[in-house]
């Protein structure tokens, strides 16, 4: 610990956060070297490639070597501490090594989900002012190839800051290279075939060299920090080592230095580049990973989120690796080659904790239980959900069908802004009750507060309000890149002295929390305020309905009316009148008559973000017939879904 000082947040009159600043080794050390020292052959990553059965394992030693090579490569090409590197790659070990290589040399990474269009990528590169991009020639997902390198080529045309693009080979298909491109194969000394595996896998020679060095060091019986210092001194003098690139001196960082920026999913508007810092983020990711999922040494952790989202950052990369765990990187889709993919993978890789999104659970539920029952899921211990409120039907299915009623389901509430899980059940305490569909209790150090419409704190239970957090916690984002004012305005000013999440929550009589959805999605029907998620939850309980999106629209009498977009389960065909009757019965029984849908529209799909969240703001605009006001659609997954809805609405009206 070199120095400590206290940081205050100016927007909160010094009340907000207070962080002890320390110097620490870059996170590649905390996530890799520490474990290489004690268990070099432990598997760090299992790359679950698109084709089932073609998984690829990377040990901690291999991942460290890969990271060091990349770190050296970046340094040799002028990437410095404080720079920002954009990573446009699918989930794969090289992407993780790229993140850690940036961390190792003190550069910030900016991972952009590899499904984004050239325009969305360019916007994020420009905002981040990256001069370096790392990508792969092609992506492989759901049996299809995507032209990632070509997308980068188009994007960088409108990004004057970009000076170099590193290109790795995910497939054997060559790509046209431009003057800015650097083939990643240069990482190796071009001794062997230039394939991705060759980049990923060190040769026997590399290994010998590394272990000789380690033996040398252990002779001194030195501690961890001393070992790094020695590696640094020795590598300075050992030309051979430098040439082989297996050692890369880690930067010493301040606890409040930037670790990465990450743009939010964009469900509500223009994406924000949230900035996370070194010490607090890693601590929080590691703690939550261990305690929320009850992760134990030797477990295989299966988070299926893409590394392009915060879930992938915290629970595929930083959390599991900081804990010396084995993390699965999922390259495929839940229905490739069939809807049994997740569970076949659970059986084959012996996954102990599975962490996924409600949108995928709802999708799989549509296909029926046989796809789950086919596979052995006895290794599973904890099931996690994140991203949206999980409706009761999906929760029950996850619990009883996937988890055989045996595995606790943790519905984890958090955001890109919070860095890690904030409200969640904690199965490591076996006596703690879990109520279906509830996020339950705050994690250690999190103090939730509910606010009423006047901005006053609600102190009683059995009440709903705007969800805020009353004190700082280690994993919180520190700012929005290049726009601190927007950070203050969005999160700190709405309820001075509190962090405002933008979500609504209900606190039960027992003091448990249930997330009711985004506050933007709260509607006021005949004077009753209700979260649309609550209505969706009931609509989804109808046996014919796979999923739904409810929005409010302007209504002469009620103020706002309830408009329900509904997707039916596979093979279901139902008369409009019949569906309307069923939904009205259900909603009036489970909520109240006022919440019954005034309009029901059946669609084959809903507009979603690339991370699988329903974009209700787009639906609102379509219903208002404000097609010019649809806003930023760069994060929209399938524009055809919006088109379909527009066409149906035009026919109705
Ligand atoms: P943007 O902020 O750009 O609109 P986003 O909010 O979708 O995008 P994320 O940070 O990925 O981006 O998502 C966090 C949000 O997802 C939360 O604020 C909440 O609305 C929702 N969410 C996440 N987990 C849960 C959960 N377990 N239950 C209910 N909602 C959740
Ligand atoms: Mg958000």
Automatic annotation (TrEMBL):
Residues 534-613 form the AMP-binding enzyme C-terminal domain. Its EC number is 6.2.1.1. One of its GO terms (cellular component) is mitochondrion. Residues 33-473 form the AMP-dependent synthetase/ligase domain. One of its GO terms (molecular function) is ATP binding. The chain crosses the membrane at residues 217-234. Gene3D superfamilies: 3.30.300.30, N-terminal domain of ligase-like (3.40.50.12780). It is an enzyme of class 6 (ligase). The keyword Calcium does not apply. GO terms for biological process: acetyl-CoA biosynthetic process; lipid metabolic process. Keywords: ATP-binding, Ligase, Lipid metabolism, Membrane, Nucleotide-binding, Transmembrane, Transmembrane helix. It comes from the Eukaryota. Belongs to the ATP-dependent AMP-binding enzyme family. This is acetate--CoA ligase. It comes from Dicentrarchus labrax (European seabass).
């Amino acid at each position: 610990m070199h120095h400590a000082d206290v940081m205050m947040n100016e927007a909160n009159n010094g009340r907000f956060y207070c962080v002890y600043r320390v110097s620490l080794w870059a996170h590649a050390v905390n996530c890799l070297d520490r474990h290489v020292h004690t268990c070099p052959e432990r598997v760090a990553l299992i790359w679950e490639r698109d084709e089932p059965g073609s998984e690829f394992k990377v040990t901690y030693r291999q991942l460290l070597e890969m990271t060091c090579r990349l770190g050296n490569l970046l340094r040799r090409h002028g990437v410095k501490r404080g720079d920002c590197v954009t990573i446009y790659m699918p989930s794969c070990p090289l992407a993780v090594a790229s993140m850690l290589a940036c961390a190792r040399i003190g550069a910030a990474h900016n991972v952009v989900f590899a499904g984004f269009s050239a325009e969305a990528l360019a916007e994020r590169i420009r905002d981040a002012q990256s001069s370096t991009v790392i990508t792969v020639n092609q992506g492989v997902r759901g049996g299809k190839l995507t032209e990632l390198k070509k997308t980068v080529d188009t994007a960088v045309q409108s990004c004057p800051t970009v000076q170099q693009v590193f290109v790795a080979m995910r497939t054997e298909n060559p790509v046209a290279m431009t003057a800015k491109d650097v083939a990643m194969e240069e990482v190796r000394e071009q001794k062997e075939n230039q394939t991705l595996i060759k980049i990923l896998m060190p040769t026997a020679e590399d290994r010998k060299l590394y272990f000789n060095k380690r033996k040398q060091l252990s002779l001194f019986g030195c501690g961890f920090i001393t070992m790094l210092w020695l590696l640094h001194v020795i590598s300075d003098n050992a030309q051979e080592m430098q040439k082989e690139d297996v050692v890369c001196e880690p930067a010493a960082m301040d606890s409040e230095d930037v670790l990465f920026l990450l743009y939010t999913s964009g469900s509500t508007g223009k994406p924000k580049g949230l900035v996370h810092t070194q010490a607090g983020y890693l601590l929080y990711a590691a703690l939550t990973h261990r305690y929320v999922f009850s992760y134990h040494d030797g477990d295989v952790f299966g988070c299926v989120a893409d590394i392009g989202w915060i879930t992938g950052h915290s629970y595929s990369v930083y959390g599991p690796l900081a804990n010396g765990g084995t993390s699965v990187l999922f390259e495929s889709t839940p229905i490739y080659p069939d809807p049994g993919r997740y569970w076949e993978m659970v059986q084959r890789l012996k996954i102990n904790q599975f962490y996924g999104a409600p949108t995928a659970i709802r999708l799989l539920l549509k296909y029926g239980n046989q796809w789950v029952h086919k596979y052995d899921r006895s290794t599973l211990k904890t099931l996690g959900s994140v991203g949206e409120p999980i409706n009761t039907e999906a929760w029950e299915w996850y619990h009883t069908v996937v988890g055989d009623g045996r595995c606790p389901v943790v519905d984890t509430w958090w955001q890109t802004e919070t860095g890690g899980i904030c409200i969640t059940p904690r199965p490591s305490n076996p006596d703690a009750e879990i109520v279906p569909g509830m996020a339950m209790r705050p994690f250690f150090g999190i103090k939730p507060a509910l606010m009423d419409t006047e901005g006053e704190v609600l102190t009683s239970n059995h009440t709903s309000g705007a969800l805020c957090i009353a004190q700082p916690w280690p994993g919180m984002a520190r700012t929005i890149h290049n726009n601190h004012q927007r950070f203050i305005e969005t999160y700190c000013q709405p309820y001075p002295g509190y962090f405002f999440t933008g979500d609504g929550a209900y606190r039960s009589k027992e003091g448990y929390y249930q997330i009711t959805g985004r506050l933007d999605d709260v509607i006021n029907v005949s004077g009753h305020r209700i979260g649309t998620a609550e209505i969706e939850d009931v609509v989804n309980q109808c046996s014919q309905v796979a999923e739904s999106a409810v929005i409010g629209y302007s209504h002469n009498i009620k103020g706002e009316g309830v408009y329900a977009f509904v997707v039916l389960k596979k093979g279901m065909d139902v008369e409009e009148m019949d569906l309307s009757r069923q939904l009205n019965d259900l909603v009036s029984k489970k909520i109240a008559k006022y919440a019954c849908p005034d309009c029901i529209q059946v669609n084959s799909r809903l507009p979603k973000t690339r991370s699988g969240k329903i974009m209700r703001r787009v639906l609102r605009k379509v219903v208002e017939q404000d097609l010019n006001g649809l806003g930023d659609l760069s994060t929209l997954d399938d524009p055809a879904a919006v088109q379909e809805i527009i066409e149906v609405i035009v026919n109705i009206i």
